[in-house]
Amino acid sequence: MRQSQAFIPTLKEVPADADIVSHQLLLRAGFIRQTASGIYSFLPLGKKVLQYVESVIREELDSIGANEMLMPALQPAELWHQTGRWDAFGPELMRLNDRHDRSFALGATHEEVITSLVKNELNSYKKLPITMYQIQTKYRDEKRPRFGLLRGREFIMKDAYSFHDSYESLDQAYETMYQAYSRIFTRLGLNFRAVIADSGAMGGKDTHEFMALSDVGEDVIAFSDTSSYAANIEMAITLDSYQESEASMLSLEKLATPNQRTMQEVSDFIGHSVEQGLKTLLFKIDQSFVLVLTRGDHEVNDIKLKNLYQASSVELASEEEAKQLLGAGFGSIGPIHSTEDIEIVADYAVKYIRNATCGANEEGYHFVNVNPDRDFEVSQYADIRFVKEGDPSPDGNGKLQFARGIEIGQVFKLGTFYAEKLDATFLNEQGKAKTLIMGCYGIGVSRTLAAIVEQYHDDKGIVWPKQIAPSQVHLLVMNGKKDDQVALADDLYQSLQSQGITVLYDDRTERAGIKFADSDLIGIPLRITVGKRASEGYVECKRRETGEQLELHHTEVKDYIQNFYQ
Ligand code: 9G3
Known about the structure:
The chain is built from 15 helices and 31 strands. By secondary structure, it is α+β, with helices and mostly antiparallel strands. The protein folds into three domains: 36-237 and 402-453, BirA Bifunctional Protein, domain 2; 253-382, YbaK/aminoacyl-tRNA synthetase-associated domain (YbaK protein); 464-564, Rossmann fold (3-Layer(aba) Sandwich). The longest helix is centred in the first third of the chain and has 21 residues, at 167-187. 42% of the residues are buried. The mean pLDDT is 94. Ligand 9G3 binds at residues 85, 89, 92-93, 108-109, 140, 159, 202, 410, 412, 440-442.
């Protein structure tokens, strides 16, 4: 591609409304432009990189026998009514009416479409298992689109769906797809972790998320520093390696603790560590109140609470409700109370606390020497806390560390949720109609592109990994007015391309400084500069990543490039 004919509008300045590096650089290097909030155009260089990312995905999915197809973005509302998701999803699901006033969803995902398609076309166990995938534009009307391609309202996703006659078959497909994802993200050069995740509203059981490690990631993951254990923080667990305390139980006392509200304040006031405190929170789980207890230094994990109760809603009660129910505000509530019995659920760590402190359900008073099971009854002990850095890894191997990640892929075992709703069955060997079992698998393609830039850049611009750079060589001619330079550069442009090497040729009449700055921004791994020594046939070769450069005779250039890319 000649830059004199190319559409690569680079920017000198950092755009004001871009807060993360990948968003800034993709704009400045002329890869994308925002059309509306959360909606982007991919300019030529951005489209090229997108193509390479997609080709890696296609190769790996085709190699495991998945069938590429393409489904419509316009989805009839009826399908979403059948699965109950038309109402389950609110404004995030973009909807429109056609000229006959029939309702459609703009596809946020395609479980409904693919399941209804398979239902009508596939009816025998002989045709199972089968996996279909597409690389297609998705629409989700995010409340706060931000971070460029990382959280857009129109984005490109590879979504795959597998259909099975048994859970063993689903397990195999899940494992195969998991391995394919690992190969994809490894080939794309990403530093990623596959983490145990929460299947949430998706129903289904197992699910893993593929996280590209990055400080701008929205998710927090916990992983062992010495083993392969890794989980989304919502799901991360630790070894309940609490030991029985030898301390003997002291007698319960009520102390005045004026104006002491937080665990830290009360603990300091009483004179013991915050681990000796009993944190009491009043939750509304579905419609009933539950007192939730954790050790003073732990945090309640509402996802674990939700999964424990299989609840559809879990939220903190208001201070008003706490006062009505327990007679005190948040800083003074506790599990020892006289009101009608409220269920008490406690984290395992609470079981082993001796002589703890907790609110006395009276403003400005706390109990000390509180002992669970003696002074109050716990309906059930469970793992309901967030793990902390340094907690033992649940496999007993190492300690947990935290990192932030960008979710670039997820694999789900869906089970029969959609097939039941859409009555998608197949005839088994005995000729009996059975409900299809499904898996679904996503990769955020445009998000992955941004995650790569987050992991591959320096202070001058993007530093593309070799295998997905918009071209292999960036060829610059220093002075477009010098015939010998232009002649040599033109000759190299033709000869390299004839060898199948992709070249971005900066043949513009810009001055050298602009060309070098743009080249650093765009981030092509290898730069060939034709300058003063063109008359002797020599060019300069510079590696973008390391800055290493050397003079080469133009006859050596091809081998050097092929060497660099093999
Ligand atoms: C919606 C909207 C947003 C959504 C969904 C539906 C997330 C929705 C979960 C998935 C699960 C898998 C197939 C590929 C891999 C991920 N956000 N999810 O279903 F209507 Cl507005 O998309 N789908």
